[in-house]
Amino acid sequence: MSMLANLSFLLFFSAIISHQTPWPVTVLLLSLSSCFAFSLNYWLVPGGFAWRNHHDNQNPSKFRGPIGWPVLGTLPQMGSLAHRKLASVATSLGATKLMAFSLGTTRVIISSHPDTAREILCGSSFADRPVKESARLLMFERAIGFAPSGDYWRHLRRIAANHMFSPRKISALEPLRQRLANEMLAEVSEEMKERRVVALRGILQKSSLSNVLESVLGSDVHIKREELGFMAAEGFDLISKFNLEDYFPLRFLDFYGVKRRCCKLAGKVNSVVGQVVTERKRAGDFRSRSDFLSALLSLPEQERLNESDMVPLLWVNKLFPFLSSYF
């Protein structure tokens, strides 16, 4: 249908210009209009520009989605309450079960139907997720939440189940929690004696931070907590920042300085957390400790992670989520 419309447009346009302009100009205009008409067929497909090679020409009614803008796709329509806008578009197109659209050259599908959403979330077909450029540079793809489905991800999951959330591990950290609770009670009692008023929020935050750092890295680690907090805050800012590289193949460019800042921050994280790992290796005696780092270092040789994998696991899965909300 679109090809027929473009052909009609060309015939109509050529009939108009052939009587009003010299033939060289006519040829040039016809060439330009032909290129324009054929380019329309390139991106005027359900779902938009990114889906141009993936739609079913034999049965286009099965594939629904907004055409969007040339090259940009649906990006200009994103903004506040984007989920409501997309749900409204899906309803208007009768594509609540599955709707395709484009964000630049990135293909996206959404579901506004509970059964389809359940199948997507519970099935293995969508186990992997695209990793933002900033998240990739900040080593998120080496952690459990963003690692591609496969042997490495299953290995990380086994480590998490056996050494992070197992009943034995939780029981082993009971003395730490008891000590921190006693310290909180003592601090509350002291403030009550001195000022008759207690700022509980600061005490709870301090104790929570100590609990996370000591359960992950150990109680004898000398590390600047403020520095870790600033690193986490910057990482959160970089991951949430809009970046054209996530939607277009522009990795050789760095429009907003995101790549430069990510590389700098990743180097700092590797330096700070990597130094803790190196010092713990040098100290030895891992099995007598109950922190998560010692558990990783005491794994059997065939299960042990490289240091390049330990740092992202410690940082992304254990430290970053808490620190980014704390500071």
From TrEMBL:
InterPro entries: Cyt_P450, Cyt_P450_sf, Cytochrome_P450_78A. GO terms for molecular function: heme binding; iron ion binding; monooxygenase activity; oxidoreductase activity, acting on paired donors, with incorporation or reduction of molecular oxygen. Belongs to the cytochrome P450 family. Pfam families: p450 (PF00067). It comes from Salix viminalis. The keyword Signal applies. Residues 1-18 form the signal peptide. Its cofactor is heme. It comes from the Eukaryota. Keywords: Heme, Iron, Metal-binding, Monooxygenase, Oxidoreductase, Signal. This is CYTOCHROME P450 78A7-RELATED.
